[in-house]
Amino acid sequence: MAKISIDHINLVGISAVVPSKIEKNIDLPLGDLEKQALIKTTGIETRRIADPSTTATDLCIYSANRLLDELKWKRNEIEIIVLVSQTPDYSIPGSSMFIQQQLGLSKNCIAIDINQGCAGYVYGLSVISSMMHSGKLKKGILLVGDTLSKVIAADDVSLTSIFSDGGTCTAIEYGAAGSMEFNLQTDGSGFEHIIIKNGGSRYPNGTDCYLQMNGQDVFNFALQEVVPNVESLLSSSKLGVEKVDYLVMHQANILLNEYIRKKLKIAEDRTLYSLKDYGNTSCATIPVSISANAKRLNGTDKIQFLLVGFGVGLSWGSVLVKSHGAKFLMIDEYR
Amino acid sequence: MVNPDKFLKVFASQFEENTRKSISINSAFKQIKGWSSLQALIITVAIHDEWGVSFSDEDFRNAQTVHDLLVITQTKLEK
User: Fold this and answer.
1) CA A232, CA A173: separation in Å to the nearest integer?
2) Could you say which of A167, A185, A275, B10 would form a disulfide bridge with A43 (CB–CB 3.0 to 4.6 Å)?
3) Which alpha helices (DSSP H) does chain A contain, by range?
4) Quick check: B45 and A256 in contact, CB under 8 A?
5) Which of A40, A157, A158, A219 to substitute to test the interface with B, most B CBs within 10 Å?
6) R_g of chain B computed on alpha carbons
7) Is A213 helix (H, G, I), strand (E, B) or coil?
8) Which residue out of B43, B53, B54 would a mutagenesis test of the A interface target, given it has the greatest number of A Cβ atoms within 10 Å?
9) From CA A136, how far away is CA B41, in angstroms rounded?
10) Does the distance separating the beta carbons of A37 and B60 come in below 8 Å?
11) Which residues make Cβ contacts (< 8 Å) with residue B49, sequence separation at least 6?
12) Which helix (H) or strand (E) holds A207?
């Protein structure tokens, strides 16, 4: 397993924004019993849907401006920006460059795009933290967001009932207290389990450019792989699970998430969720869940998080984040 | 060996109470009231919790009866 340990790196703030349009699972074109079963199994009651002119980049920029203002960070102090998204504005160029310009960041700022889905927050944190540590870069921002509603067929209820849109910003500082320990894994044999087949270079002329997901096999993968990954991380870090203040998992569905939580023996009140109100916001679910619980978290100086992502790729990973004095902004609506 | 009575109990207990009584080891599970792709996930979690194996999409496509699922579980355990 690929384990990375980074010291002197601190997560100092998180903000999240969602579109104002709400879709309710109770309004789906299904029978009453089916809808009840769906809501009970997924744990999702409402989802947020971006309007046609709003992209994941827009949501991330909005979220970043909010957090930078709150932290009183000067734009020219930011030396790296990493964007994680599978719904960028264009195929070429990457959206991180556009964001660099939109946020008014310096030309000395590194900008990187990462194509990652539900494990993307953990992977994004590993990339930005590693680069900040090796380059001694003082301030950086990780933007994580998706508008998957734009790539899901309107009549595919199995997907429309789950996925939701959102954009987030996480501020990272190098040099002070704080640390991150990662355990990252990949299994490309499952690359077709969650896929948009057409529109890329291999199938450029396909007409159907919608997301397809083999739910049963993705579910199986998570059932088998996530818990051993986390247990291995906890074992190598020599951190007992009782030392974890909050577990925040990718918000897949309540059935799977609760299974993982129970296997890890972490109490319900130490597990942060956002599924009910915000659904599965793809790569953004972890920071969205932290923002959705901001009231509980603010005012605590030191927090030991255990963050766990898993999904498209197949790709999965966990990270122990020790943060000091972080500010967590409550979820805002995009305007 | 997977005990058939225990397997049936674990399988049936994932359904509504008034449906459980009608489920036998030879039931065609896709015909059981309440069966859906979501119910397949619920069954998968219950079997994984008890025996540590899980069903793929192909397993559910190929199996017809509860007993077929038991055989798949047994085969996976033997591997």
Assistant:
1) 27
2) A275
3) 32-42, 56-71, 95-102, 120-135, 157-160, 215-237, 254-264, 275-278, 285-292, 294-297
4) yes
5) A219
6) 11
7) strand
8) B54
9) 46
10) no
11) A259
12) none
Closest among A108, A106, A104, A144 to A127, alpha carbons compared? A144
Query: What six digits make up the tokens of A17?
Result: 């924004």
Say whether residue A5 is in contact with chain B using an 8 A CB cutoff: no
Q: Tell me how far apart the alpha carbons of residues A123 and B17 are, in angstroms, rounded to a whole number.
A: 43
Contact A313, A190 (CB under 8 A): yes
**Which H helix or E strand runs over B19?**
helix B17-20
CB contact under 8 A, A220 and B44: yes
Indicate which of A213, A223, A314 best probes the interface with B, i.e. most B CBs within 10 Å of its own CB.
Answer: A223
Give the A window 34-63 contacts with B, CB below 8 Å.
34, 37-38, 41-42
Task: Quote the pTM value.
Answer: 0.93
Q: Does A158 touch chain B (CB under 8 A)?
A: yes
The pair of three-digit structure tokens given for residue A230, joined into one six-digit string: 């986390």
Residuewise pLDDT in 10s, chain A (335 residues): 689 999 999 999 999 999 999 999 999 988 888 888 899 999 999 999 999 999 999 999 999 999 999 999 999 999 999 999 999 999 899 999 999 999 999 999 999 999 999 999 999 999 999 999 999 999 999 999 999 999 999 989 989 999 999 999 999 999 878 999 999 999 999 999 999 988 888 888 877 789 999 888 999 999 999 999 999 999 999 899 999 999 999 999 999 999 999 999 999 999 999 999 999 999 999 999 999 999 999 888 999 999 999 999 999 999 999 999 999 999 999 98
**Is the minimum CB–CB distance between A304 and chain B shorter than 8 Å?**
no
The single residue listed with the structure tokens 């980074």 is: A6
Q: Does A210 touch chain B (CB under 8 A)?
A: no
Cβ contact A26:A35 at 8 Å? yes
| H-helix or E-strand spanning residue A114 | strand A110-114
Assess contact for A331 and A295: CB atoms under 8 A.
Answer: no
Tokens linked to B37? 């792709």
Q: What are phi and psi of A190, to 5 degrees?
A: -105, 25
Residues 6+ apart with CB under 8 A from A78: A68, A103, A105, A106, A109, A139, A140, A141
Q: Is ipTM > 0.85 here?
A: no
